[in-house]
């Protein structure tokens, strides 16, 4: 066990400084940037050290195969990119644990009856090009390259100018997927459990709200003469919070990103662009929540003399993991089963018809998408053992 602790800690020591802010401790590992490419190179080295055969598709999704047996392969893994000012564990824990699980299976003397792959999907967070789980959507064919190559990042750089792109057959031989992930909440803390299993993923998405008005002088323009889109946005943000609370505990609504033009201290803005992140326990509830927020925005814009347009940028429907798979993973071990409100590559693969499951590792802070995100070494090791157990059964 001590050797495995050293291996786990060594891998974390390798990853810890990559893309980390010296000021905040948060991470910026956006896809196709130096930090994320360094992590991908690290993954290639880890795969080579284990004798795994690496395959990469046109956008950078990667699978390292333990080539054994015959038939549909079993895939595990996660992603290496982060949100802006993200934590260390969201994504990389699943990749490191997958590599450690391969080591554990070999220590057990397991001889797989089918291939085992460790996968890394790109742009899972959607923090650069706005479409969450972009890599796994392309890998499964649920998104087409022609439809996404024109996406731009905050600097106006096109996805198609960053990576050549194209169709992907990377998952052609995959029969099932198991993703380990740090829990992004407090359920396992409250249940006093190191490991849990996902029952499904809430439907969720991102909507772009463009509020437009008239730029003018902040001092000389009378309040009654203004067409201020910031005011319309502010009231809409409050309305989103209220509508989500009315539906609580089965709804979430967040305006977490805002861009303002001309963004001057002494100027009324001409435009405010804001992104709504909304999540609910059902597809119908999500539609109703977004419709209610949109109605509030339109009504307020009419009152303010401004205008608003709303565009869905990334929407994922509800995912229910196959009950027999969930029961098979959780039942014999008495692991708690819980839903998740966060999106994951496992949800994309499941929606594409690949039987999938998720294993969660306790996060004592309950905080995610933040430098405060954490997992204890002992719980990480428990997660590795849990993942190895699930993979061993799947490989028979």
From TrEMBL:
Specify whether Hydrolase is a keyword of the entry: yes
Top-level taxon of the source organism: Bacteria
Cited Pfam families: Peptidase_M20 (PF01546)
| Keyword Metal-binding recorded | no
PANTHER family of this UniProt entry? ALLANTOATE AMIDOHYDROLASE, ALLANTOATE DEIMINASE-RELATED
Homology family: Belongs to the peptidase M20 family.
- This one is known as Allantoate amidohydrolase
